[in-house]
Amino acid sequence: QWIFLSGQFVKKEEAVVSVYDHGFLYGDGVFEGIRAYDGNIFKLEEHLQRLYESARSILLEVPYTKEELTQIIVETIRKNQLEDAYIRVVVSRGSGNLGLDPSNCSQPRLVVIAEALALFPKELYERGLRVGSVASRRNRPDVLNPQIKSLNYLNNILVKLEANQAGVDEALMLNDQGYVTEGSADNVFIIKNGTIFTPPVYLGALEGITRNAIIDLAKEAGYTVKETPFTRHDVYVADEVFLTGTAVEVIAVVEVDGRKIDDGRPGKITNQLLKEFRKVVANDGVK
Ligand code: PLP
């Protein structure tokens, strides 16, 4: 397996980064997770846009143009002979000294990893996820904006740890007012009486690229989609609940905080949207 690291392709075993890299010391950097289906990179432009915006927000310069980075990603997939892949793009502040001041870092570091996908087991899609809301809150947009996909994912990791301890598959994050925001690394949707709801991102959710694709797909299929704040109660009494994300695609949630969602089985509209999504990703994207 070949990894693109600081300007060249190196073997996986040799792909190591300095302990002085501020990505490691301080979580100072940004990243993206991208998928390729059958050789097509899904929504590459949107992912690159978000990467460059995350970087701009933290005053980090991506050391390549979007065109160059596209070539590097395509080459990483090709070199590893992958068709279906999960691609991780990381830009760290680079190596510096032990002080946290980024001006001590010589140059940003780019890493691109492409791997054959470890898809979630098929049974999970058929069974649906058990999810729990957790005590940790989503960080407020005025503190560290969730739109910045930074290497500092502690907020999300704490939430995942709580979910693990509670013995559920995934966590639901609330904001400091108790509104539902998103999962640990996925967006959340609920369906009630045929209308589809997802939290507005200003509540404290990443504006997921899969989320936006699903909103478009659902509207095309004739559904009304509303970006409206909702609480755990609305989730408990929803007809259907599902999560979206680059890694999970579209996955049903069948239980939240011990409450069965409807009959406790993946919903019809959720399954329909997953099917539509799989159709789109098979025919879309950058070769
Ligand atoms: N929310 C968070 C916190 C994430 O890290 C991710 C994953 O990127 C998502 C939601 C889903 O976003 P996307 O569909 O762009 O992968």
TrEMBL record:
Pathway: Amino-acid biosynthesis; L-valine biosynthesis; L-valine from pyruvate: step 4/4; Amino-acid biosynthesis; L-leucine biosynthesis; L-leucine from 3-methyl-2-oxobutanoate: step 4/4; Amino-acid biosynthesis; L-isoleucine biosynthesis; L-isoleucine from 2-oxobutanoate: step 4/4
Annotated transmembrane regions: none
PROSITE patterns on file: AA_TRANSFER_CLASS_4
GO biological process, one term: L-leucine biosynthetic process
Cited Pfam families: Aminotran_4
GO cellular component, one term: cytosol
Known EC number: 2.6.1.42
Recorded catalytic activity of this chain's protein: L-isoleucine + 2-oxoglutarate = (S)-3-methyl-2-oxopentanoate + L-glutamate; L-leucine + 2-oxoglutarate = 4-methyl-2-oxopentanoate + L-glutamate; L-valine + 2-oxoglutarate = 3-methyl-2-oxobutanoate + L-glutamate
Co-factor(s): pyridoxal 5'-phosphate
InterPro entries on file: Aminotrans_IV (IPR001544), Aminotrans_IV_CS (IPR018300), Aminotransferase-like (IPR036038), B_amino_transI (IPR005785), BCAT-like_C (IPR043132), BCAT-like_N (IPR043131), Class-IV_PLP-Dep_Aminotrnsfr (IPR050571)
Family of the protein in this entry: Belongs to the class-IV pyridoxal-phosphate-dependent aminotransferase family.
Protein name: Branched-chain-amino-acid aminotransferase
UniProt source species: Sediminibacillus halophilus
Protein's gene: ilvE
